[in-house]
Amino acid sequence: MGDSGDDFCGKYLDDLERLIERIVLHENEKNELMSIISDARVRQTVPIRGIHQKIMDYRRKYSLYNPFTATEEKMIEKLLCFWS
User: Which of 83, 71, 82 is nearest to 18 (CA)?
Assistant: First the structure.
């Protein structure tokens, strides 16, 4: 977690984009989440709580419970700890 702010945010936002691309199958929800990511890049922050909540709501709404990979789980855990 010793990365500079820009590098840190960019890396994790890239990772979140890949996660969203993989698990969000509906374009409206995917576009909404990608818009949040795009705004976060401008603000140089990672709004993980809001993104996480939207992903969990999406999964519940459509009963899509594809498991996160170990790498994705670790990333989410790190982000929740760091940005909370």
Answer: 71
Write out the DSSP string of 4-70. Answer: -HHHHHHHHHHHHHHHHHHH--SHHHHHHHHHHHHHHHHHT---HHHHHHHHHHHHHHHT--PPPPH
How confident is the prediction along the chain (84 residues), in pLDDT tens digits per residue?
Answer: 444 556 878 999 999 999 999 999 999 999 999 999 999 999 999 999 999 999 999 999 999 998 999 999 999 999 988 876
Residues with Cβ < 8 Å from 78, sequence gap 6 or more?
1
Please tell me the distance from the alpha carbon of residue 40 to that of residue 49, in angstroms, as a whole number: 12
| Lookup: tokens for 74 | 């670790």
Q: What does pTM read for this prediction?
A: 0.85
